[in-house]
Amino acid sequence: MLSGLNHLTLAVTDLERSVRFYHERLHLKLDATWDTGAYLSLPGLWLCLSLDPLRESMPAADYTHYAFTVEAADFTALVAQLRAAGVQEWRDNRSEGASFYFLDPDGHKLEAHVGDLASRLEACRNKPYAGMKFYP
User: Fold this and answer.
1) What CA–CA distances, in Å, run from 112 to 2, 13, 85, 92?
2) Does domain 1-54 match CATH 3.10.180.10?
3) Same CATH fold assignment for domains 1-54 and 56-129
4) CA-closest candidate to residue 104, choices 49, 44, 54
5) What is the mean pLDDT of residues 84-98?
6) Does residue 94 surpass a pLDDT of 90?
7) C-beta separation of 22 from 12 below 8 A
8) Are 42 and 68 in contact (CB under 8 A)?
9) How far is CA 9 from each of CA 41, 48, 50, 100, 116, rounded to the nearest angstrom?
10) For the domain 56-129, what is the CATH code?
11) For residue 96, what pLDDT is reported?
12) Contact, 36 vs 55, CB < 8 A?
């Protein structure tokens, strides 16, 4: 039986650049590095960066992305800091809660989001998506 998400591994083309981005820009804790990888973390997240020359630095066309929680009080400053650093945005926010959608140096789609599953479900109960059903 699954009990949670264990870790997330992202293929990167320039390990040092990606470590700087996730550690210095997004403030993930740097736990370990080696020649072809790094471990970083946030409470409840173990992120592995893995050097992979096959990774293409173009964002995928689909909606797959990785969302990080940001407190409402920190959201505006984080967005300003990322924009000042020239981080590329890939989408406008279209859902409940403040969100900023941006790319990492390898084109992985990321999101900084204010809110959680409970706030999303509450918003959806007030304005459900087409065909939406709720379960106990």
Assistant:
1) 26, 23, 15, 12
2) yes
3) yes
4) 49
5) 93
6) no
7) no
8) yes
9) 12, 5, 7, 22, 22
10) 3.10.180.10
11) 85
12) no
Supply 119's token pair: 């706030």
**Residue the block writes with tokens 């900084």:** 112
Query: Among residues 108, 110, 100, 104, which one has the least CA distance to residue 79?
Result: 100
Give percent above pLDDT 90 in the chain. 88
Q: Which residues are catalytically annotated?
A: 111
- Domain map (residue ranges) of the chain: 1-54, 56-129
Residue found under tokens 């630095």: 57
57, two tokens: 């630095």
Asked if pLDDT for residue 38 goes beyond 90, the answer is yes
Query: Could you write out the three-class secondary structure of the chain?
Result: CCCCCCCEEEEECCHHHHHHHHHHHCCCEEEEEECCEEEEEECCEEEEEEECCCCCCCCCCCCCCEEEECCHHHHHHHHHHHHHCCCCEEECCCCCCCEEEEECCCCCEEEEECCCHHHHHHHHHHCCCCCCCCCC
Residue bearing tokens 């992305």: 65
Q: Is the pLDDT of residue 67 over 90?
A: yes
